[in-house]
Amino acid sequence: MVKFSRGIGAKTLLFINELGAMGFLVFETFTMLIFKRPRWYLMFYHSYRFGVRSQPVILLTGAFVGMVFAAQMFWQLHKVRLDHGVGPVVAVAMCRELGPTICALMIAGRVGAAITAEIATMKVTEQIDALRALATHPVDYLIVPRLAAIMVCMPILTAEAMAMGIVAGFLLSSNVLGIDPYYYMENTYRFTEALDVYTGLIKAFFFGIIIVFVSCYKGLTASGGAEGVGRATTNAVVTSSITVIIFNFFITFLLNAFFPKI
Questions:
Q1: Confidence class for position 4, pLDDT limits 50, 70, 90
Q2: In the 8-state DSSP scheme, what is residue 36?
Q3: Are the C-beta atoms of residues 48 and 148 closer than 8 Å to each other?
Q4: Mean pLDDT for the chain?
Q5: 8 A C-beta contact, residue 228 and residue 122
Q6: I want to staple 42 with a disulfide (CB 3.0 to 4.6 A). Which of 35, 145, 223, 228 is the partner?
Q7: CB within 8 A of 121, min separation 6: which ones?
Q8: Nearest to 216 by CA among 82, 120, 104, 84
Q9: Among 166, 211, 204, which Cα is nearest to 67's?
C-alpha cells in the first residue's frame, strides 16, 4: 500500500512539474512572438511544410469522413422519412466537430511527430546547446516560427476539410443515395449558420497551438539517444491527440456558453 501511494505521489509530482515547465514555455514563446522581430523565412518555410504539404491528407480525410457521415445519417433518418435532414446534419457536424477534430488529429500525427523528431534529434545530438553557444535562443529559433506557421495554417486546413466533407457528402447523397439535390442544398443553406463555421475555425486555432507546444516540449525534454527520440515522438502524438480531444469538450462548452446558437 505504501509503495502504491508513493507511486501515485511520484506520478502526480511529475505531472505538476511538467505542467509548470509547459506553462513557462508557453509564456516565453508568446512573449517572443509578440515583442521580438519575426523570422519571416522560417515562418514561410514551416507554413509550406505544415500547410501546403498537409493538404492531400486533410482533403482526402475530410472527403471520406463527410461521405461516411452522410451515409450513416441517411440510413438512420430514412427510417423516419427525414431524408431532407441529411444535408444540415452533415454540414453542422463537419463545421463544429468533425472538421476541426479530424484535422487536428491528422496534423498531430503528421506535423506533431515531425516537430518532435526534429527537435528531439537536435537535443540528443547537442545541437540546441550549440545554438545557445552561438547566442541564438532555442525558443525564438525553433518554436516561435513553428507556432506562427501553425496558427495560420490550421484554420485554413480545417476550412478545407469542412468544405471537402460537405461537398463529398452532397455528391454521395445526390448521386448515390437518391436525395434531391435542390432540397439538400436548400436545407443545408437554411440551417447552417456562420457561427457553425466560426466555431470550427476557433477550435482549429487552439488545437494547432496545443499540438505545437506539446510536440516542442516533448522534443526539448527528450533524452537517451535514438531510442529517446522515438519515445518522445510517440508520446508527443499520443499526448497531443488526447489533449485535443479533452480541450474540444471544454472549448465546445465555452463557445456555447458565450455564443449560444439561436
A1: low
A2: S
A3: no
A4: 88
A5: no
A6: 145
A7: 127, 229
A8: 120
A9: 166
Do residues 148 and 38 make contact, with C-beta atoms less than 8 angstroms apart? Answer: yes
Among 59, 215, 245, residue whose Cα is nearest residue 150 = 215
What mean pLDDT comes out for the span 76-85? 79
Say which residues have a Cβ less than 8 Å from residue 208's Cβ, sequence separation at least 6: 104, 107, 150, 151, 153, 154, 155
Which of the four pLDDT bands, split at 50, 70 and 90, describes residue 25?
confident
> What are the extents of the domains in the chain?
40-257
If one counts every other C-beta atom within 10 angstroms of the C-beta of residue 44, the result is: 14
Residue 262 predicted with pLDDT over 50? no
Cβ-contact 73, 179 below 8 angstroms: no
* CB 233, CB 116: distance < 8 Å: yes
Q: Mean pLDDT over residues 122-133, rounded? A: 87
CA gyration radius, the chain:
21
As a whole number of angstroms, the distance between CA 222 and CA 115 comes to 12
Would you state the cell numbers that stand for residue 97, as one nine-digit string?
466537430
Distance CA 95, CA 166 (A): 9
187 in Cβ contact with 85 (< 8 Å) = yes
Contacts for 46 with CB less than 8 Å, ≥ 6 apart = 145, 146, 148, 149, 150
User: Rounded to an integer, what distance in angstroms lies between the CA atom of residue 222 and that of residue 245?
Assistant: 24
